[in-house]
Amino acid sequence: MEFRQAVQKDLEQLKLMYREMIRNMNENQIQIWDEIYPCDFLEDDIRNSRLYLMSEHGEPVSAFALCEGDGGENHVEWEKCFVKALYLDRFGVRPNYGGRGIGGRMLAKARTTAKALGAEYLRLFVADINKPAAGLYEKHGFTRRKGVYHLVIDEELTLREYGYEIKL
User: Fold this and answer.
1) Nearest to 117 by CA among 105, 109, 128
2) Domain annotation for the chain: domains and CATH numbers
3) What is the pLDDT of residues 33-85, one digit of tens each?
């Protein structure tokens, strides 16, 4: 498998992969992503050199973005607030590649990439209903921090998100 930064020519295959993840999450009653998020953010992630992917035989099997901030960052009590941290966003593994350790390998790649970019911490938010993701992060050393971010999507949907971090 190849790990690299995503480029513009990857966009359509990445959108297809994310649509598969959305379908799978909806089937498992984890209705937190849709056609707008994360799909509409991928092009900007590529343009700003913050989207990374793992591919097999030229097909993306996992991806994540490393962002410099997050709307919920002030709602959580981080271990150290005023140090450089990057935020893991839009992390996912193509459903038919689940159970092969790709999630753990990608989290390791996220940690080494964030550290190479000068971050002292890698942070993320996970919706309270996304228990499989929270379990993966905890299994790989992330610590849940005190606080909850209420992410208002629209009048009908507000997500409760917990902050997690790992020292690099």
Assistant:
1) 109
2) 2-167 (3.40.630.30)
3) 998 999 999 999 999 999 999 999 999 999 999 999 988 899 999 999 889 99
Predicted pLDDT at 35: 82
Planar angle of CA 45, 50, 55, nearest 5 degrees: 90
3-state helix, strand, coil in the chain (%, to 5): 35, 35, 30
pTM, whole model, 2 decimals?
Answer: 0.94
Distances (CA, A) of 164 to 2, 37, 87, 89: 27, 20, 10, 12
34-43 long-range contacts, CB within 8 A, separation 24+: 38/89, 38/90, 38/92, 39/15, 41/65, 41/89, 41/90, 42/6, 42/11, 42/14, 42/15, 42/18, 42/90, 43/8, 43/11
pLDDT tens per residue across span 87-141: 999 999 999 998 899 999 999 999 999 999 999 999 999 999 999 999 999 999 9
The encoded tokens of residue 129 equal 């209903």
152/32 Cα distance (integer angstroms) = 12
Q: What's the rounded Cα separation, in Å, for the pair 134 and 77?
A: 18
pLDDT digits (tens, 9 = 90+) for 76-85: 999 998 899 9
